[in-house]
Amino acid sequence: MTAVDVLDLLLAVSTLLTKDTSNFAAREGMTPARLHLLWELAAEGATQPHLLAGRLGVAARTVTGLVDHLVESGHVARAPHPEDRRSTLVILTPQGEAFAERLRQMRANLARQLCETMPDNRVGALREDLEVVLSRLQRLLDA
User: Fold this and answer.
1) Distance, first Cα to last Cα, the chain
2) For residue 91, what pLDDT is reported?
3) pTM
4) Residue 133's pLDDT is what?
5) Measured torsion, CA atoms of residues 60, 46, 92, 20, in degrees rounded to the nearest 10
6) For a tag on the chain, would you pick the N or C end, based on fewer CB atoms within 10 A?
7) CB-based burial label for 70 (10 Å; 0-12, 13-18, 19+)
8) In a domain, 92, yes or no
9) Residue 125 Cα to chain centre, angstroms
10) Beta-carbon neighbour count of residue 26 at 10 Å?
C-alpha cells in the first residue's frame, strides 16, 4: 500500500463522515454548520461570538446568522457577559443541552461500532498514526 492509497482511504472516510453528519443534520432540521456550533458550545460552554467564529473558522457575521437560527429553534440563547458589558455570550438552553447530549451519545455509538472488532492496541496505534497525519496536515495548511 502506498501513501497515495492511504490518502485515498482518508478521503473516503472523510467523505462518509461528512455525508453521515449532513444526513443527521437534515433529519434534525439543521445544517452541519449549526451542529458544529452546538458541538463547540457543548465542549467549551458559554462563549463569545467572536471566539466561536475563530473555532469554527468562519466570519463573525456567519456566527451571528447561525446563532440567530439556533435562538429561533430554542437551542441557544444570548446572555450578557458577566465581566464585559459590551459583549454577549452564546449559551446552550436546556433544549440545546439535551440535543448536545444526543450528539455525544450518537458519537460514542458510532465510535464503538467502528472500532468494536479492533483490538485495543490497534485502536491506540490508529489514533497515534492519525494524530501524526493530522499534525502534518495542519502544518501544511498553516504554511
Assistant:
1) 28
2) 96
3) 0.84
4) 94
5) 60
6) C
7) buried
8) yes
9) 23
10) 11
Number of domains in the chain: 1
Compute how many other C-beta atoms are within 10 angstroms of the C-beta atom of residue 48. Answer: 16
Nearest to 37 by CA among 83, 75, 6: 75
Q: Which domain holds residue 73?
A: 30-142
Within a domain: 8: no
Cα(90)–Cα(110) distance, integer angstroms: 28
Q: Please identify every stretch of the chain with a pLDDT value under 50, giving residue numbers as ranges.
A: none
Task: Look up residue 104 and give its three cell numbers.
Answer: 455525544
Cα angle for residues 22, 33, 109 (degrees, 5° grid): 50
Write the CATH number for 74: 1.10.10.10
Q: What is the identity of the amino acid at 87?
A: S
